[in-house]
Amino acid sequence: MNVAVITFPGSNCDQDCFRSVELAGGSPRYVWHREQSLGDADAVIVPGGFAHGDYLRPGAIARFSPIMGAVIAFARDGGLVVGICNGFQVLCEAGLLPGALLRNESMRFQSHDCALRVERSGTPFTRDYRKGRVIRMPLSHADGNYYADPETLAALEATGRVVFRYSDARGTVSAEANPNGSLNHIAGIVNADGNVLGMMPHPDRAIEEALGSVDGLPLFTSLVGSGAGTAAHTEVA
What we know:
Low-confidence stretches: 228-237
Number of domains: 1
Distance between the termini: 25 Å
């Protein structure tokens, strides 16, 4: 599976994502933000970092980079797209995912491990996870507080589009386990067609034992194993 890893000025997790795809058995390729084509990509990853310095607000400038036209068209045609941390912010700004990422409730940059509960296992990104499994991976952001209007939140919950939720190590969801104040403790969501995922924690920083956790690797093996044909136009039940 050929995976395009988009790189913006200020990206700092593109190499992590490249390595993650390699470990999962895929074939990654860097795509600079000034390019206008994804080439033969079967999937796209928009990595974490500080695209264009996070000026104005995170993701707001990156959304207008030339490559984003191709990413938007690819996603709307059913292609698999993953946005991690800053990538989640970019996808929200581009209109590929609903809602927005606001400043952390603490008004401080958060950088530490967190626990997540897997809410959905039937997506192209989570098929190698068991529903209800608690996983551990790092987070690193100042603007990770997920917000959406009540109608959007209700639709996300009703259609099973919340994929990851902040929890404690036992899987209990609580305000104490929520690192940024995200509504409904949301850590990751998919779009209505189930082919675009955005999440704030970093699975790409939890892929080898030397990093302290391998809980992020199943996301990449799920992605690579899904394949473009299987993933296209996947519906969320």
